[in-house]
Amino acid sequence: MKNLIKFIMVMSVLTGMISCDLDPIEENRLDFDFILTNPNAAEGVLLNGYAGLVNQYSFSEAATDDAVNNILNNNFKRMALGELNAQFNPAARWGSFERVFWVNRFLDVIDTGETQWSRDTLINTMFEMRMKGEALALRGLHHYYVLQAHAGIGQSGQLLGIPYYTEFIEPDGNFNVPRLSFEASVQAIMADFDEALNLLPTDYGLSAGQVDPWYSELENFDFDKYGIVNDNFFDLRISGRIVRALKARLALFAASPSFLDSQSYYDMAATNAAQILNTIGGTAGLDPTGNEFYISDDNIQSSESLWRGSIGGNTFNYEERMFPPSINGNGEINPTHNFVMAFPMQDGFPATEANGFDPQNPYNNRDPRLEKYVIVNGASFGAGGDIINTGVGGGNDRLDSIPEQSTTTGYYLKKLLRPDVLINDNGTAQGQSHANVYFRYTELFLILAEAANEIGGPDNPVDGITARDVIAAIRNRAGITQPDNYLASIASQEDMRELIRNERRIELSFEGHRFWDMRRWGLPLNGPAKGYFFDGNNYAELPSVEVRNFQPFATYMPIPNSEILKFSELEQNMGW
C-alpha cells in the first residue's frame, strides 16, 4: 500500500463500465489542486473504484470439489494440492485496498465542495450526491472483498476482520493499523452502504413519479435537471438497488456458521433481499432464461443481471480455454463427478439408485441443467454439433489422452461459454460478445431462501416469500415440474438447508461462489475429486483424480506475509 503515489494519475479506465470522455493533457501526473478544478479529472479518480470488481470468470472452482484444472501450474490447482500459504495465495484480495484509497481520494475532492460539476446549483448538488454515494458504496464493496478473503480466527483466538480505511493516506502516512473485530468490520461496511443508500438513486432512468425523496425533495427540484445527473446512460454504475443487494450478500456472509452464526444478520439478509425481489414481483419475477444468462447478447441483457459491465466485443478466449480439444479448445476446467451427482433426477429426487439413477446410463432422466452446464460423454456440443466422447474411442477428447488438454474427470465445462463461438483448425475464430456479471437476481433469490430458512424453516415468510417458494420457482425454471414431490417432502430446517445449498451449488456453479461458500459453511475442503470413465462397455467411477491437501485451518485464508512483515499491528490468522 505504501507504493501509492502522492499524485493521482487520471485514467480513462473502465471500458467495461462506462464511457467517459477525458480531454488529452500534457501531463498525466496531476496534483490535488488540479483535480479540484477539473471535474473530468476528479471523476477519473472515482472511476478507479470500478476497477477490480469481482466477476464470474475466476474459475476458483478448481480448488473445490466441483472441478479440476488441467493446467499443471494453474494457481488454483497448486492451491488445492497443498501450496496455499501466506506467500502464495491465489485467492488473496488484499490489493483491493488500493481501490479503497482511490475512492477515499475522490471523497476528499467531494468534501472540499470546490469542484464545479455544473454551473447550475441544483445539478451540481445532485452530481455531488450521486458520486459521493458511488464512492461510499465502492469503498464498502472493496472492503467486503478483503473481508471475504482474509477474515478469520487470529493468533489471539479472536474472530477478526480487517483494517478499515476511511481516509486517503499519503505515502509517508501511517498504514500500520490493526484489524477490527469481524463484526466491527461488517458494521463499518454496512455504514458505508447505508450512507450510500441515502445518496444514490434506487435505479437510473426513473420516471418523474419514481424519483427518490432525497432528490425530489431538494429545493427547486427540476426533473429535467435530475435526468442530466441520473439518466439511464449511467445504468451500469452502482445504484441503490445494487447496494441493497450487496447488503444482503454481506449480511448472509456474516451470519454464516464459520463467522457469527447470527439470526440478526440472517434477518438483515432476508429483509434486504425481499425488499428488492418484491419490486420485480417476487418469485414470479425470476427470469425464465436466467440460468443461461451468458449464451447470447439477448440473455446477457436480460432481466437476470442485477449488475453487470458493458457487453464487450467479439472474443473467444474463454471458449478456447475451455472447449474440448476436438473443437480446438484446451479443455482447461473439468467438472468433477461430485458436481455431476449434485444434479437431481428429472422429477427432483436426488440421483441415487433408489430414485431411478442408472450408473450405466448416468445422464438419462436427469435435471435439464446438467445438459446445460456440463459436457458429458456422448453429448453434442459446439457450433458444428460435434459429438464429444470422453471414453474409449473419444480420440483427443478421451480422458487423459493429451496431457494438460483432455479431460481428467470425464467431463468438460459448458457453463459460461458461448456455444456459437467457432474456433477453426487454423487458429482463426468466430468470436462472440461477453460481459462481466457482478450480481445476478438468482443469487439474490438464493440469499433470501437461505436466510429465511435459517430464521424460521422452509415455510417462514419474509415479506411474503418463503424458502420453499424460491426453490420451487428455481426448480420449475430448470425443468423440474412443479409441484415437486421431493421438495414437498422437505419438512425440517436441516433438510431444506441441504437442498438450498445444493441448488446454490448448481445455479451459481462456475461463477466463483463455491470456493467461498464451502468456507463460510465450514464444509470439509479435502473431499476427493471424482471422475467417471466409459471403457467402451461400462462406466466406472474414478474415486480420486486429484488429491486435495488443504490445511485444517484453511477455512480462513491468510493475510499476505509481506503485509505482516511490514506492519506490526496486523495479526495473522491462526496457522499461517
TrEMBL record:
It is found in: Cell outer membrane. Residues 88-204 form the SusD-like N-terminal domain. The keyword Plastid does not apply. Its main location: membrane. The keyword S-adenosyl-L-methionine does not apply. InterPro entries: SusD-like_N (IPR033985), SusD_RagB_dom (IPR012944), TPR-like_helical_dom_sf (IPR011990). GO terms for cellular component: cell outer membrane. This is RagB/SusD family nutrient uptake outer membrane protein. It comes from Winogradskyella flava.
